[in-house]
Write a structure and sequence with these properties.
By secondary structure, the protein is of the alpha/beta class. The chain folds into 3 domains: 4-70, Archaeosine Trna-guanine Transglycosylase, Chain: A, domain 4 (Roll), CATH 2.30.130.10; 79-183, RNA methyltransferase domain (HRMD) like (Transcription Regulator spoIIAA); 205-396, Vaccinia Virus protein VP39 (Rossmann fold, 3-Layer(aba) Sandwich), CATH 3.40.50.150. It is 27% helix and 29% strand. The strands form 4 sheets. The chain has a 7-stranded mixed β-sheet with strand order 15-14-13-16-17-19-18, sandwiched between helices. Strands 1-3-4-5-2 form a 5-stranded mixed β-sheet. A 5-stranded mixed β-sheet has the order 6-7-8-9-10. α2 crosses α4 (137-147), α9 (279-288) runs parallel beside α10 and α10 (310-326) crosses α11. The model has no long low-confidence stretch (mean pLDDT 96).
Length: 398
């Protein structure tokens, strides 16, 4: 029989509304002393009246001290449940995306908190960020093999969230082998090799797939600048979809090597040019050089990692996009993106409005995108909707 985690009076309202997280200040620690529980323990979460609300795994030292994985209080987080959740997640992705290239598991959204899995055809990359999932590592691997039967499995367990949970970092190929430490994928009819061993996160960012598809429709014959390019997700696709010229800017020489490899893979190497350096400095240099672009993509890493960073992060978004706007031709397109969940939905469009006034430009927002279908949003958990991509046409004032 599972231990219980009793909530304070009225603290069950969010969970009844569809939320899955329990905060430490919502627990009645006199009835259920939270700190005495071991991290990763499965518990039945109860309302103050003793009614079961579901079953969760606990992280007693964290603000989010428990995460529900089932509303059935008899359920356990075992191989059988994982197989079922993986099958449900896979069927949902395959409705949208061919080539078996997608984010297969998106943590809480797929009922597997603390777990991310990306699929690259016959290569599966698993990223575990909680004690609960680390304890069930073999069950995850067994479930993946049962559902997908991949040739290769990589454990990419080097994320920042592991440090928060007190977990060691490691990267390991536990099944099969990789060619050049990379995994092949196809996105929007463009081929890539994702650096799943030495790259960022799982090696690739599937979340912007739909936004890149939108941009691909607009770039024919255009001169494109891709800032924070990483391995060329935006830039190489733009070149492959008819852009006349693409310039990729990144601080990492290794990332730009991967850009060049991916450009060659698609036969567009002659169109793609790489600039190594700090984004702010590179943008200023391009301006001093008199460069102009028809399209600028500004897709930085999360500039607001914590709520307390909102002010500084918003200032950084403002400076970057203002520099980008200065590089646009008279009738140019700015794609301003953010993966910071703490940046409110309306802030990026409003920043562009302010920038337009500061630079005496007319800003017209033509499209606002979010994450793809393989990063499903739970309506009750705002944090699961984190990605923004604002497509703004920038014109001289009328």
């Amino acid at each position: 029989m599972l231990p219980t985690l009793r909530l304070k009076a009225k603290a069950e309202r969010r969970l009844k509304g569809g939320h899955l997280w329990v905060y430490s200040n919502e627990v009645d620690i006199e009835i259920t002393p939270l700190k005495s529980m071991a991290a990763g323990t499965e518990v039945v979460v109860e309302a103050a009246n003793g009614k079961a609300l579901g079953v969760a795994v606990v992280s007693p030292e964290q603000l989010i001290c428990a995460r529900l994985f089932s509303r059935d209080s008899q359920q356990t987080l075992d191989v059988s449940l994982m197989v079922h959740r993986l099958q449900v997640a896979q069927s949902g992705r395959e409705l949208w995306y061919p080539h078996s290239c997608y984010r297969w598991v998106f943590g809480d959204s797929d009922g597997l908190p603390g777990l991310v899995i990306d699929r690259f055809g016959d290569v599966v990359v698993i990223q575990i960020s909680s004690v609960a999932m680390e304890q069930r590592r073999q069950a995850i691997i067994d479930a993946v093999n049962k559902v997908a039967k991949p040739q290769c499995i990589v454990l990419k367990n080097d994320g920042k969230l592991r440090a928060v949970e007190g977990l060691p970092e490691y990267v390991e190929v536990i099944q099969g082998a990789l060619e050049d430490d990379c995994a092949p994928l196809v996105e929007n009819d463009t081929r890539f090799m994702a650096p799943v061993i030495h790259g960022q996160k799982t090696g690739w960012f599937y979340d912007h797939r739909e936004n890149r598809a939108q941009l691909n429709r607009l770039v024919k014959g255009k001169r494109v600048l891709d800032v924070f390019s990483y391995v060329g997700g935006w830039g190489v696709q733009a070149a492959n979809h008819g852009a006349a010229e693409v310039h990729c800017v990144d601080a990492s020489a290794q990332a730009l090597d991967w850009v060049e490899q991916n450009a060659s893979l698609n036969g567009v190497a002659e169109k793609v040019h790489c600039w190594e350096g700090d984004a702010f400095a590179a943008l200023r240099q391009l301006k001093d050089n008199g460069e102009r672009f028809d399209v600028v993509v500004m897709d930085p890493p999360a500039l607001i990692p914590r709520r307390k960073d909102i002010k500084a992060g918003e200032q950084a978004y403002h400076r970057l996009n203002q520099l980008a706007m200065r590089l646009l031709s008279k009738d140019g397109l700015l794609v301003a993106a953010s993966c910071s969940m703490h940046l409110a939905e309306d802030r990026l469009p409003d920043m562009l409005r302010v920038m337009g006034r500061e630079l005496d430009r007319e800003v017209m927002i033509q499209h606002v995108g979010s994450q793809g279908a393989d990063h499903p949003v739970l309506p009750a958990i705002a944090e699961t909707r984190y990605l923004k991509a604002v497509f703004a046409r920038v014109l001289p004032t009328r």
